[in-house]
Each structure stands twice: as structure tokens, then as C-alpha cells.
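To: structure subgroup
Subject: Chain for Friday's discussion

All,

I'm putting the inputs and outputs inline so they're searchable in the archive.
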Amino acid sequence: MTAHDLTLEGHGIRLTPAHPDDAAEAWALTDAAMWAGMTTPWPASAEAFAAHVERQRETPGMLAFTVRDAKTSGIRGSTTFYDYVPAQRRVEIGTTWYGRAFQGGRTNPAAKLLLLEHAFDVWGLNRVALRCHSRNDRSARAIQRLGAVPEGRLRRHRVNGDGSVGDTLYFSILREEWPAVRAGLEERLRD
């Protein structure tokens, strides 16, 4: 799976297929500190960010999205489906980042609700996994606030963008947990 045409919209945001043309606006929302803990090095220029997006588009089993404001189309960040294995009815959600102005608000729960609805209700998957670097407490808390269940720590599982080796925390949402997770996300997004 490479470039895709899937667009998801709701709760004030729109997820559009990631494209290198978005790089200048998206890259301006990033910095090296917020990128820490990613498995890829921080793209230190708009051109490097465009190349990063192109690599995402070329990665089998990955659907990369630009997260936009539904009214203005302004970019808020990025997220992906990856390790999509239809025959096993599973996918992971990750490689997610948001500009600092959009962290801790409605953007992440809205994006995750759209992705989870698609995974469970359209694709009919049994499992959606999420993961983060073991030192990324903010992401781990955000994943658990979504309703994902901690599964454990994979030791020395990831090579970070800076070349260091770290542990990964894994979480999941199963099909039978989805109704409660959906209800929790919808409650968080009520105006």
C-alpha cells in the first residue's frame, strides 16, 4: 500500500492523504525536541520533511495522513495507519505528532476516533495497537486516555532517530472494547 485516497472527517478535523506538498507548512510546526522519541531523525528542513512524507507514502502497509482543521484546512500535525495486515485483521496507529498549539486539546482524540471508526467499523478489524517510546510519558498517558489497554514493554525494541536504543510501550484496543472506547472519545469531544 503506498499513496492512498482515504480522507476522514469529523469533530472539527480532516485527515487527508499525506503529500510532500504539505511539507513546508507541516515542518514549520515541528522542532527537534518534540520529535524526540520518534524512530526517524527529525527532518531538519522542509525539503527533508517532504522526503520523509514520500518515504511514508512508499512504505507497504502504511497510510499516512495530514491532520487538518476542517474549516481552514490549516495543518495541525500528522498520523498514520501502519503495519496494516488485512488477513490478520489488525493495524497499528502511530507516527503521530501535532504542533504544540494542538497538543492536549481536541485534535488527538478527534483524529483517533476517526481512525478507530474506520479500523473497526469499515475494515472490520479485531485489533488496533498503539505504541510509544518508554520515556515518552506524555504519549503513554494520551494513549491510555484514549481507552487503550497497556500490554507491556518490549525491551531494546526500537532504534531512535538519534541512534540510541530504547524500549517500546505497547497498548491495544480490541473489537469488544471498541464500543466503550468510542463512548469515551465521543464524551471527550462533546461541545
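Points worth raising on Friday:
The chain has a mean pLDDT of 94.
The two ends are 36 Å apart (CA to CA).

D.
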